[in-house]
Amino acid sequence: MKTAPEISVIMSVYNGEEYVAEAVESILNQTFSDFELIVIDDCSTDTTGEILKRLAERDERVKVHPNEVNLRLPSSLNKAISLARGRYIARMDADDIALPERLERQYAFMEAHPNVALSSCRFMTLKNGVISSGGCGGKCDSASIKALLLVTNPILHPGIIAKADAIRELLYDKTFTCTEDMELWTRFVMAGYEAEILPEYLMIYRLHDKQITETTLEKQHREVVAIQKRYLGTLLAPMSDAQEAFYIRGVYFRENTDVAKFLEFFKWLKAVNRKTKSFDKTALHYAMFEILAEYKRKGIAKKELIGAMLAFGIPFLAAELPARKKRARADGLRCIASAGKAGLKHTGGTLEFPTFSK
To answer: % helix / strand / coil in the chain, to the nearest 5?
Structure first.
């Protein structure tokens, strides 16, 4: 007789009374039912504990484990991983919403792609009642994800599902408290595991002022530098001090849109990769082209943009530009279809969730 579920969904929450019930309900309302939801209450001082207790009493799949001391997110997630019984481990945050078919679609994807150890999904963002699509037009294959990790974090943390054995082997590094997800993804890749993105819109990612990404920018800078010194240094070559200074401001966070330095850095990446062959050439070009697209959105001069684009070569541009438009259009249609299927609708500029209770 089977006792372990196929999927263990893990969540850590600290003072999440405003949204945690909605997040848990969205998991309980999944079309895929063979899961357990392990929730670590990281010493909440509001009514989070009471809310979780009521939910656990209502549905035995909800397993609540209060911490005796505040462990913070990485250590709490490692605790949840140690308790997980499923073949797959999926993440969920206490302020996000999983669309009803999330687990069903992600489980099917992982079963159909045994070479993939970790995958995420497309998502919609929700801020102040307004919903938008995220990630339109981005590539989803493992070679592109590996290259994108050089310059950004393309994987939605609360939207991942992974093979339990792989995530137990690596675990979260508790010293990274702002970028613990990206730190883990880079180690996944360096360990030889494949990561992909399922191009289906299965999550609603809530944006609000309390998020780590809005409050600890300087700490993020330090952590990203540490991660990329190891990732680039292992797979390509160590960055010089000048490259490192430009990388954090001009590539990862795009605060300094210096096109000349961008092209210098790109030239260096290509030269080193020709020796190491760590990254697919087209994927490396694609990753850096994504950063140039961010430069464009920040308003660099048209002459500079054209000059920078030419550095990618005509063959790449001739293939990528029409493909990018095609991907963006397909993603837009998927997003609209997913929103409609989940019963999401706009009313007077706000978003209603008719199937999710709060």
So the answer is: 50, 20, 30
Residue 192: Cβ within 10 Å count: 7
- Between helix 314-341 and helix 281-297 the angle, nearest 10°, is 70
> Strand (E) positions, the chain?
7-13, 35-41, 62-66, 88-91, 97-98, 116-127, 130-134, 161-163, 194-206, 345-347, 350-352
Q: Are 256 and 248 a contacting pair, CB within 8 Å?
A: no
Q: Where are the domains of the chain?
A: 1-94, 96-342
Q: Which residues pair with 116 in a beta bridge?
A: 194
The residues, any chain, with a CB within 8 Å of residue 36's CB and separated by 6 or more, are 5, 7, 8, 9, 61, 63, 84, 85, 86
User: Which run of H or E residues covers position 244?
Assistant: helix 241-246
Beta bridge partners of 97: 204
Of the candidates 320, 148, 177, 325, the residue with the CA atom closest to the CA atom of residue 251: 148
| 61 C-beta neighbours (distance < 10 Å), count | 17
CATH architecture, domain defined by 1-94: Alpha-Beta Complex (3.90)
Summarize pLDDT for 225-281 with one digit per residue, the tens. Answer: 999 999 999 999 999 999 999 999 999 999 899 999 999 999 999 999 999 999 999
Q: Give how far Cα 332 sits from Cα of 44, 100, 129, 325, 339, Å.
A: 38, 19, 19, 11, 11
Q: From the CB of residue 201, how many other CB atoms can be counted at a distance below 10 Å?
A: 28
Write down the pTM of the prediction: 0.92
Convert the pLDDT of each residue in 149-198 to its tens digit. Answer: 999 999 999 999 999 999 999 999 999 999 999 999 999 999 999 999 99
Closest CA to 86 of 103, 65, 105: 103
